[in-house]
Amino acid sequence: MKPDAIAQYLQDNPDFFEAHLETLSQINIPHPHGGRTISLSERQLLALREKNKTLETALQEMIATAQDNDALQGKVHEFIVALFAARDLDTLSEMVPHLLRDIFDVPHTALSLWQTTPPSAELLSFADEHDLPVCVHQAAHDTASWFGEQADQLHSFAYLPLHAGSETIGMLVLASEDKQRFYPGMGTIFLQRIAETVGSALHPLLDH
Question: pLDDT per residue over 9-23, tens digit each?
Fold first, then answer.
């Protein structure tokens, strides 16, 4: 008789062991970690313990993630409040990189505004076609030069298009030597909040 047929029979006849209690008590199966055999009830107990351990680990990971998100929320709030201190375009442009480094520990940033530095056609197209931040491992288009001599040492980038309404007004780029700091597929909700905040702060200071 095939194992699948036995399993199906037991599922179809849940009262089998109730009618054959002596058979249930005589069943011994290999210990999951080897070395000896154990009763079916002991194996069930081990399975429950392993399941509880897995659930406990998952819960701890969820708590850690929630704590990390709370910390990031606090940093975004601090960043937004700090931007209110800027009263002109030059001050704000200088503040953004410093705040990103001090609050978010981003070692390298570059801010380019189309009003002061018109972009290449490729970069403008790249910015216009992305509503959300884009994380990559290679500098896009001509932006590597924005980081000067440090460009060759950078291995991850987050591109944050800056918008004023439906118009793209510039690009904020965060970069790191750490390849895992920014990577394709990572969540970008907090990066998007940073981009929206910077874009909103810049908008009234630009020429219209």
Answer: 667 776 766 666 566
**Domain annotation for the chain: domains and CATH numbers:** 84-205 (3.30.450.40)
0.70 cut: is pTM over it? Answer: no
Residue 5: the pLDDT is 72
| Lookup: tokens for 18 | 């109730």
- Between residues 69 and 179, which one has the greater pLDDT? 179
**61 or 92: which carries more pLDDT confidence?**
92
